[in-house]
């Protein structure tokens, strides 16, 4: 899978993509990430990429010309073009898994107050939000999306933790609490059942905790089994 990320700050991504699992996935050739500077596609001698909104209002918008040119410079028949925006559909694990099945993603990061609607009308396949709040630009959302998608690319995660094989996650449940050594930490003991090695009892305990947590946090009734 290839991911092209179009933004005004390609440097933004260099930290997160150069460490840990995303770094290894690139080294193993499982994903290829390309960072593209939209300003390269500016159409005037001042390299301008923003302008004032028609109808008035605060701030600036990204001009359609440079955005559309940048997208078209990498687009082919197999490309899926995603614009990151609070106006999009909220990202879920299911959407990440679906996007991981594409061979080419183009992620468009907005800056300022956003982009001209005609870029969306002409070139964008879907709009995705990483949550209901407003960030200063779309670079962090593109990092979040790239990270969450990469976990679903075959070979990126080890056998054990394979992205959606977690039965609880598949049922929309939150995870049970987890513990490692020591057995007691600042007077708090690890729940006895986890120390016993009784796999059925451990699985039952985890399910119960998982359902409790899901109810607490989401108010949602866990699906019956
Ligand atoms: N922004 N989920 C504003 C976001 C955002 C989000 C990206 C800030 C687009 C123009 N994107 N720019 N939340 O807050 O995706």
Give keywords:
225 residues, alpha/beta, five-stranded parallel sheet, two-stranded antiparallel ribbon, 32% helix, 19% strand, binds ligand 4HQ
Give an overview of the whole structure.
The longest helix is centred in the last third of the chain and has 20 residues, at 199-218. The protein starts with a strand and ends in a 7-residue tail after the last helix. The protein is α/β, with parallel strands linked by helices and 225 residues long. It has helices spanning 14-17, 20-27, 64-74, 93-99, 117-123, 139-150, 167-170, 199-218; strands at residues 2-7, 32-37, 50-51, 61-62, 79-90, 104-109, 126-129, 184-185, 188-189. The strands form three sheets. A five-stranded parallel β-sheet has the order 2-1-6-5-7, with helices on both faces. A two-stranded antiparallel sheet has the order 3-4. The chain is elongated, with a radius of gyration of 22 Å. The relative contact order is 0.14. Residues 84-86, 110, 114, 129-131, 133-135, 137-138, 141 line the site of ligand 4HQ.
Q: What is the beta-strand fraction?
A: 15-25%
The best one-word shape is elongated
Work out the radius of gyration. 22 Å
**Compounds present?**
ligand 4HQ
SSE blueprint and pairings:
Elements: E1 2-7, H1 14-17, H2 20-27, E2 32-37, E3 50-51, E4 61-62, H3 64-74, E5 79-90, H4 93-99, E6 104-109, H5 117-123, E7 126-129, H6 139-150, H7 167-170, E8 184-185, E9 188-189, H8 199-218
Parallel strand pairs: 1-2, 1-6, 5-6, 5-7
Antiparallel strand pairs: 3-4, 8-9
Residues 84-86, 110, 114, 129-131, 133-135, 137-138, 141 line the site of ligand 4HQ.
